[in-house]
Design a protein that fits this description.
By secondary structure, this protein is mainly beta. It is built from two helices and twelve strands; from the N terminus they run ββββαββββαββββ.
Length: 205
C-alpha cells in the first residue's frame, strides 16, 4: 500500500465541529496521482513508488521518455514502501478519512535576509542608558583566546525560511473525494499553490 500522496496547498478557512467549536483548517488539493515507476530492491536497491501529480505544459526530452504513455506530469515524487505486491495504479484522497493523523512536508515561505530578533527570537540589547545602536543586535558571538574562533552553528542573522519543513500529526477533519480535497486542522508549510507531500503519521489512525 502506498503510504502517501502529492498535494497542493489551496489556502486556509474555518469549519465548525458538531459541538459548535470553530477550527482553523488548511484546504489541500490531494491528488489524484498516477503511479509512474515502481522501484525494487533487486534493481534499485530499495522499494519505492514514484507518483506523478499536476499537468505540465511542456516536458524536456528525457521527461517525455520517462513518462511515455503515462501522461504529462509536472511533479514526480517517491514514497518508500515495505511491500510492492499490492500497488494500485491511481492514488486519490480516499487514502485518508476524517480522524486520521498525517505528516505534511513542504517548503516554508522565504523571508529573505533577517536579523537575529526575527530569525531566532533574540531579545535584542538594552533600549536605554546610552545604548542608541544595540536595540536589535545579537550581542557577543564568542570568547577571545579560547577558543579563538566563532563556533559553528552560532545563531546569527541570515537567510530565513525557504526550507523543507515537516509538520507531524495533523488531524484530517474532513475529506471531499469529489473535489480531491483534504481539510487539515491547523497550518501547513508553504504558500498558496505550494507543493506538499502528505503521508500517514507513524502510530496514527
Amino acid at each position: 500500500m502506498i503510504p502517501g500522496i502529492i498535494g497542493k496547498k489551496v489556502g486556509m478557512t474555518q469549519i465548525f465541529r458538531d459541538n459548535g467549536k470553530a477550527e482553523a483548517v488548511t484546504v489541500v488539493e490531494a491528488g489524484p496521482c498516477s503511479v509512474i515507476q515502481i522501484k525494487t530492491v533487486a534493481k534499485e536497491g530499495y522499494n519505492a513508488v514514484q507518483l506523478g501529480f499536476g499537468e505540465a505544459k511542456r516536458l524536456k526530452s528525457p521527461e517525455r521518455g520517462h513518462l511515455r504513455g503515462l501522461g504529462q506530469f509536472k511533479h514526480l515524487r517517491e514514497f518508500r514502501v515495505d511491500d510492492i505486491g499490492d500497488i494500485q495504479v491511481k492514488v486519490d484522497v480516499s487514502l485518508f478519512k476524517a480522524g486520521d493523523l498525517i505528516d505534511v512536508t513542504g517548503v516554508s515561505k522565504g523571508k529573505g535576509f533577517a536579523g537575529v530578533v526575527k530569525r531566532h527570537g533574540f531579545a535584542g540589547g538594552p533600549k536605554t542608558h546610552g545604548q542608541s545602536d544595540r536595540h536589535r543586535h545579537g550581542g557577543s558571538i564568542g570568547a577571545t583566546t579560547s577558543p579563538g574562533r566563532v563556533l559553528k552553528g552560532t545563531r546569527m542573522a541570515g537567510r530565513m525560511g525557504n526550507q523543507r519543513v515537516t509538520v507531524r500529526k495533523l488531524e484530517v477533519l474532513k475529506t471531499d473525494p469529489a473535489r480531491n480535497l483534504l481539510l487539515v486542522k491547523g497550518a501547513v508549510p508553504g504558500a498558496k499553490n505550494g507543493l506538499l507531500l502528505i503521508t500517514k503519521s507513524a502510530g496514527g489512525k
